[in-house]
Amino acid sequence: MxxxxxxxxxxxxxxxxxxxxxxxxxxxxxxxxxxxxxxxGSFVSANNYTTMGTVKIVNQNGKKMLVLENFRTxxxxxxxxxxxxxxxxxxxxxxxxxxASTGTFSYELDSSLDVSKRNQVLIWxxxxxxxxxxxxxxxx
Length: 140
Description:
CATH class: Mainly Beta
Mean pLDDT: 85
Strand content: over 45%
Strand order of the largest sheet: 1-8-5-4-2-11
Radius of gyration: 17 Å
Order of helices and strands: HEEEEEEEEEEE
Largest sheet: 6 strands, mixed
Number of strands: 11
Number of helices: 1
Distance between the termini: 62 Å
CATH topology: Immunoglobulin-like
Number of domains: 1
């Protein structure tokens, strides 16, 4: 019984540590001084979840990057970053897991991504199919 309790306690501590480490990220590799902004937008909240900050698509050293800047959202399970044609993600590109619930961080974009068609950036809970927030990208 003691081994089981210790195992449970250790598991809970690891989960708390993993969640804590994803709270805030500052992308130290990103230098926006050397980047030109191609598109920009501001996040709006959805479905009673708070989401705020700006999103940009920048060209940095020949690479397109999606940058979430001064970003903050309600933490949730299985949060993804999508670039989509609308706020209902039926036609989208999955950029991967949301790196943190607060901070400034970036995702490298495939050069074939057509932002003029996929101009919605979504913070999407895949597990429960819920929109946490979105931003519409406009050309700069």
